[in-house]
Amino acid sequence: MSEVSASNATAPPCKPRVAVHKFSSCDGCQLALLNAGEALLALAERVDLVHFAEAGPMDPEAEVDIAFVEGSVSTPEDRSRIVRVRSNSRFLVTLGACATAGGIQALRNFADGDGWLGAVYASPEFVSSLAQVSPIREHVHVDLELWGCPVSGRQVVSAVGSLLAGAPPAVPDERLCLECKRQQAVCVMVTRGAPCMGPVTRTGCGALCPRFERDCYGCYGPAEHSNTQALGRRFAGLGLVDEAVVRRFHFINSQAPAFLEAGQRARGHADD
């Protein structure tokens, strides 16, 4: 056996390379991944985390098998950087509400952003921002979207395992109401008339808010085939004025098409 072949026989197998990129966000999804604890340590044994600024490794231009992206596109620099991340990645996965549906910063899409900058900053011309905040899928192809505000470490670790195994990751899209039934949570809309978003929101959080007797505010985004029109009418029946209905849909996931359309419909009623 030659020296080269003997060396190859003992070389450790290459691990899949993974990066976690931050765009405009609060870092909450990265912190959720860090809080995965032992599951994150087990993941680190299976992959090379080549870029994850919150955890330490820094190599933002590295070519990787999986790139996780947290945050939305809100600056010109974001817009050019996401193209480079896509070109360096085999799979691109969005993490959480900001990357998937704009996040809280997308609320400025409904306001006078330039007016806000002028009111807050003495020299707003030095603040570089786009007129509209947008989710990642509006700029590059996205292979998988993980919803939540924030996501859970379990979601991320499960997605990595599925992608590396060549299997489609399981992404729940059923309504939160079903999870409430499984968790035996009392319906806050039926018993207290709370304007709960559960009937149109996908599960994934374990019905956390209803189990603590508060209404869902839709942080996991719209469920598949969600009937937002019927829920809007129900909110009106509960006494919410049109502007309050708008705010229920135009919140953390305002750029998700189903919620965006529902809010615009309610706003149309408010403007009549």
UniProtKB/TrEMBL annotation:
Domain NADH:ubiquinone oxidoreductase-like 20kDa subunit: residue ranges: 26-160
Keyword RNA-binding: no
One GO MF term: 3 iron, 4 sulfur cluster binding
Cofactor: [3Fe-4S] cluster
Stored SUPFAM superfamilies: HydA/Nqo6-like (SSF56770)
Keywords in alphabetical order: 3Fe-4S, Iron, Iron-sulfur, Metal-binding, Oxidoreductase
Keyword 4Fe-4S: no
Protein name, as recorded: Sulfhydrogenase subunit delta
